[in-house]
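Narrative of activities, Objective 1.

The group set out to show that a structural description can be obtained from nothing but a protein's sequence at a throughput compatible with the screening campaign. Below is one input-output pair from the validation batch, recorded exactly as produced.
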Amino acid sequence: MSVRIYKISNNAVLTNGYAMAGILGGSTIAVGTAYLGIGASSSNANENNRSVSVSAGIVTFIYLKTAGIMTGSMVVTLMRNGVATAMTFTIPLGSIAGRYSTLANQISVVDADELSLRVVQSTATSSGVLSFGWIIT
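Output recorded for this entry:
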């Protein structure tokens, strides 16, 4: 799903972009390393759930929303064309259910770059994932 996003300040449009999000509905990721892609209703141990970015821009935000208390840590990394980027964040052991995200280490993408999120867990089932995604401006 793609939604137009507009950043507005003082009633002036500063920039526009689009959001891409996926929903797992609280499904538990049952492997140590899994990949999440837009349009897929489950995680996969192989990075074949990738999404194609529909236009060039800068990935300014990635997020993952958990369903429960973390029984282990979870490292979330944006993948571009099968390669890990520096855009990553960690959800620590014991964290409560919520949305976790980063704005750090934003990356440029070009038309037809393939994006996914890699999730590496310290335990095989840290917590269920409700939703995930990114914003490209």
